[in-house]
């Protein structure tokens, strides 16, 4: 066995083999895979092998397209068959709501180049004659769907990697990992120690155990999963291979397996496997059958597909495979662990494994994954993702895999275990809560406890008028919102300004001021947006997206000096309340001795001041686009701050507002947000942030790339605002944008602008169309609705109100 390698990949399933192959494809030859048993000897060998391109995250869908297209390349290189059956697939809808969901899937597929077709129930029966059409109303046909041989695919990756120079060591369990001061690793195995520059955790069922070797607890859990294979069916003899089929109402999937059918389910009564530790001696084993647990799903499946009743069951498979809390993979580097990488929780390995391998290999060899993988980045989870939280969210995700997730639906698992100090105060005011990074935050406020609910829908919810009242209160008077769910950082020290000047694209503010700034990667693409408040020479308070806290910290550590600057995440240490509206200044002035006039405390001012008796940071800024103030206090002061503002606000008609109203108001102002308008896909000029990139200042990360891109026209896309002609449904995000009968772009955010009385959306279109006003359409629930580009912000386009 080799004693050293540039990279050691731990785990010989389909994902580890894909990473190994893609590293060789990227030009790294001194790479090695170590596997505790034989290739596929985890969850890969017993997988059903399904592959499909559809995914709720368009960026993940692109990687799934890549994975399926890759199989022919692997076969050509390796000479190993992948056993690919590209049968096509059909998703069946049993209700009109499900058809609405399928319309959204088809629409999203348009700008991804997918050839999806909505079909009637009669057409569905022609595609899949086993169905009893009385249970369905229609479906969606996808020609790029099918299944592969798990053994063949894994060995095709492995052989291709070996042809490219890689080494594979079987029957070689890793027992420990130890890091050297230079960041390299000793990979200690049963056969000896391998010294490696990089380590990749592709441990699959053992990903947690590998993570624990380096002191981390990865949010991953294995679930038991059943499928059955029937005896031969007369209907299948001498016929063309049947399509893959998903029956959402039955929560089952089925496909042909030789002359029988395979049927699997994501059952409600799901069971985790090996919840705390995975035994190392678990090999190519199956778990005991438990057909009684999946009997309700089987009963529905046998009714919906009557041919299953005519034959017996030849084989029952119950095997474990892994999930993250949201069902997407965990890939990328780990904060604080140099050269340690993850490629875990890839539950759909034969749809996603190729894309995961490509992204990670790009990241390792080029310093960037090469495309937007935020939805799979391991950094999207933080310390709040405990073992118990992972358990309840994975079980929820598994049991809901084939159920509709409505845009206004909040899922119940893992709720109310993280709350701010004023949770009870807001609950008493009939707050309806949302979940963000496991933290409860108010979405809207009901008039009474009895009305603190809403029906789930793809159209405008029945809370529309309540949110409208909150927006009106802000625009005409003063509103207050809790802002605890923002990410916060303290950056201090004599080198703090120089550090921020390096990682942020805008100029660093003077003492007593704030600045809005993007953060860019080396390719000049957006990887964050922040407000920086400076309250002393060497002291900065930074606000950004809480979900990206670990993501930001991982980036910051690449540029921190060895001494003289400290970055400290303090999201839950500092809690927040914000005031907004034309009466916000008068209200706050009652409680502070500092002069708040525009002359004394203009827009984008930032200062320490006492609010009543409470020490606070106060910044004159508001995401509503109105006159407003953000007030940040230590957690122990938030209850007192809330009571103080609420009492003083009685004279001004102060009204609480939540995240739904804030979303509506930021759309009215054309304000983008992270993970929607601002993602690593886009450059600052494309996202409308060019004025926040200070090209004349000293060098910063991404400056050279921005200069090069600007010299070539600033990038191919532009973010624009739309007003849509629609009456009962609004854009949500990821809808295609049409122009003159062609799909030209996509929506990033949408909703109703209560202050302007229009349905609004933000989205990207080609630069050549960014000045057009008319000719646009946005597809909502299968209908193309006329849309017009709005020049500037739909509300207060010159920004006079927030600067008043």
TrEMBL record:
Pfam families: DAO (PF01266), FAO_M (PF16350), GCV_T (PF01571), GCV_T_C (PF08669)
All copies of domain FAD dependent oxidoreductase central, residue ranges: 367-420
InterPro entries cross-referenced by the UniProt entry: FAD-dep_OxRdtase (IPR006076), FAD/NAD-bd_sf (IPR036188), FAO_M (IPR032503), GcvT/YgfZ/DmdA (IPR028896), GcvT/YgfZ_C (IPR029043), GcvT_C (IPR013977), GCVT_N (IPR006222), TrmE/GcvT-like (IPR027266)
GO molecular function, one term: oxidoreductase activity
Residue ranges annotated for the FAD dependent oxidoreductase domain, each copy included: 7-363
Domain of life assignment: Bacteria
Segments forming domain GCVT N-terminal: 422-697
Keywords, alphabetical: Oxidoreductase
Keyword Oxidoreductase: yes
Domain (Aminomethyltransferase C-terminal): residue spans on this chain: 718-795
Family: Belongs to the GcvT family.
PANTHER family: AMINOMETHYLTRANSFERASE (PTHR43757), AMINOMETHYLTRANSFERASE, MITOCHONDRIAL (PTHR43757:SF2)
Protein name: FAD-dependent oxidoreductase
Protein species of origin: Lichenifustis flavocetrariae
